UniProtKB/TrEMBL annotation:
Name listed for the protein in its UniProt record: Malectin-like domain-containing protein
UniProt key word Transmembrane helix: yes
Membrane topology term: Single-pass membrane protein
All residue ranges annotated as the Malectin-like domain in the record: 36-369
Location within or outside the cell: Membrane
Taxonomic placement: Eukaryota, Viridiplantae, Streptophyta, Embryophyta, Tracheophyta
The keyword Lyase belongs to this UniProt entry's keyword annotation: no
GO CC field: membrane
Keywords: Membrane, Signal, Transmembrane, Transmembrane helix
InterPro entries associated with the record: LRR_dom_sf (IPR032675), Malectin-like_Carb-bd_dom (IPR024788)
Source species: Cannabis sativa (Hemp)
Extent of the signal sequence: 1-21
């Protein structure tokens, strides 16, 4: 649970009263979507007809423009919001009034020496109180200059989405754009995996094609996912016999609940010759579980029956599945299969497809880290801390934004100490020490909700 600051409420209602274009757009088939041009002051539509909203829902910070705007294709990539030390260690975008459910969250992050200091910043980013991205200086040169998109799937259970940034040392966190799209709550096997994980994208590959999807082409993905070429992830030995297979035929079974995978994904594929293998090496972080999602469609019309194309999937040299696409779904029909790698001990994940009969054929591959959701502060204590912040007029420099206690790997709000509750399922406020801050104001009656509190003012 997280605090919605008065500033966020004011911005939302102010913009809503000016123009209906400021309200969230509808995302088919589920609910709403926001596309926020961080640092942007006007509404705009990009060349792929995505409507971007002017910057809003931020708790502080300042705006800037990249140093070389002509190098960026999209206007929403040229403006920035950054959070200097005067805004506090922790700053957030807090998007209110969301239906509870699952959301696709995508950020664009770039430095491009916007401040003239030639020092890319170090900071962490969290979604719903869980750390999901870490940026450490110095960034790779191409990343610092051109930026990168990062995305994930997370559940929202408190009616608002919190995307927060935590400064390392005195570096100002920075963000170029933020997108939040409601998706099917049952997507990506959530019934089996549960809602206690955030799925962080470590590679969403389309085989036999270039990069496509929202922000990169006119191709549609109902969840807002973009897909990158698989070519950079293939092991070089696989390149010798790679063949690209393409069809314009319609593919059955696409754009269906709960994952709504686009037809475009299954109309291209890569194949390797008989007795050959197709191998990918995916960079990952150790000590996490990873969800691999494989995509197939038999788009070679010369394959007429089951048994003509059969191959095995090996994950880190372990044979985990035998695939016969035609046997499963016939021809020109989408087929997907997923597998979870538990507690990976290395920083490389090997995926190998080995021929049994005929040739290997693959349309796409997704890799998601299953990041356990962090503990959150008890909801009524969040409300009490929000009331205390308002009544004491806590200054921006103290960074009282987002959840008072989460993520647990960050410091709590300045002057605040948190502990787990008795059963270890949530966080509670244990101590507030503001004696050296020179604050003045009344204390809200909601302070009584902080039942574990030691207070020093």
């Amino acid at each position: 649970m997280s605090v919605v600051l008065l500033l966020s409420f004011s911005l939302f209602y102010l913009y809503s009263s000016i123009s209906t274009a400021q309200s969230p757009s509808q995302s088919y088939p589920y609910g709403i979507s926001y596309h926020i041009d961080c640092g942007g002051s006007t509404e705009l539509t990009d060349r792929f007809n995505t409507a971007w909203q002017a910057d809003r829902f931020y708790t502080g910070g300042s705006t800037a423009i990249v140093s070389e705007p002509l190098r960026f294709k999209h206007p929403q990539e040229k403006t920035l919001r950054y959070f200097p030390p005067s805004s506090g260690k922790k700053n957030c975008y807090v998007i209110p009034n969301l239906p509870n459910g699952r959301y696709y969250v995508r950020t664009f992050t770039v430095y491009d020496n916007y401040d003239g200091k030639s020092h890319s910043p170090s900071f962490d980013a969290s979604v719903e109180g869980t750390v999901v991205f870490s940026w450490r200086s110095p960034w790779q040169e191409d990343l610092a200059r051109s930026g990168a998109y990062s995305d994930l799937f997370a559940f929202v259970s408190d009616g608002q989405a919190d995307v927060c940034f935590y400064s390392i040392a005195t570096d100002p966190p920075v963000i170029g754009s933020l997108e939040v799209v409601q998706v099917d709550p049952s997507s990506y096997d959530s019934g089996e995996i549960g809602q206690g994980y955030i799925l962080v994208n470590y590679g969403r590959l389309s085989c036999g094609s270039g990069q496509w999807g929202p922000g990169f082409s006119n191709d549609t993905d109902l969840f807002g996912r973009s897909w990158q070429s698989d070519s950079d992830f293939r092991v070089s030995e696989s390149e010798k016999s790679i063949k690209t297979v393409v069809t314009k035929n319609a593919i059955a079974g696409t754009e269906k609940s709960p994952n709504y995978f686009p037809m475009r994904l299954y109309q291209t594929a890569v194949a390797v010759g008989d007795k050959e293998e197709l191998e990918y090496e995916l960079e990952v972080d150790a000590k996490l579980d990873y969800l691999l999602w494989f995509h197939f469609a038999e788009i070679d019309s010369t394959v007429k029956k089951a048994g003509e194309r059969v191959f095995d999937i090996l994950i880190n040299e372990k044979n985990v599945k035998r695939i016969d696409i035609f046997k499963e779904v016939g021809s020109f029909h989408a087929y997907s299969w997923n597998y979870t790698v538990k507690n990976l001990s290395s920083t490389t994940l090997s995926v190998k497809l080995v021929t049994v009969a005929g040739a290997v054929l693959l349309s796409g591959l997704e890799n998601y880290a299953l990041v356990p959701a962090d503990l959150a502060t008890v909801p009524e204590q969040v409300n009490a801390m929000k009331a205390l912040k308002d009544s004491l007029k806590i200054p921006d420099r103290m960074g009282w934004n987002g959840d008072p206690c989460a993520p647990t790997t960050w410091d709590a709000w300045e002057g605040v100490t948190c502990h787990k509750n008795k059963n270890g399922t949530a966080l509670v406020i244990f101590q507030i020490d503001l004696g050296s801050q020179g604050l003045k104001g009344s204390i809200s009656d909601q302070i009584s909700l902080l039942s574990n509190l030691e207070l020093e003012l």
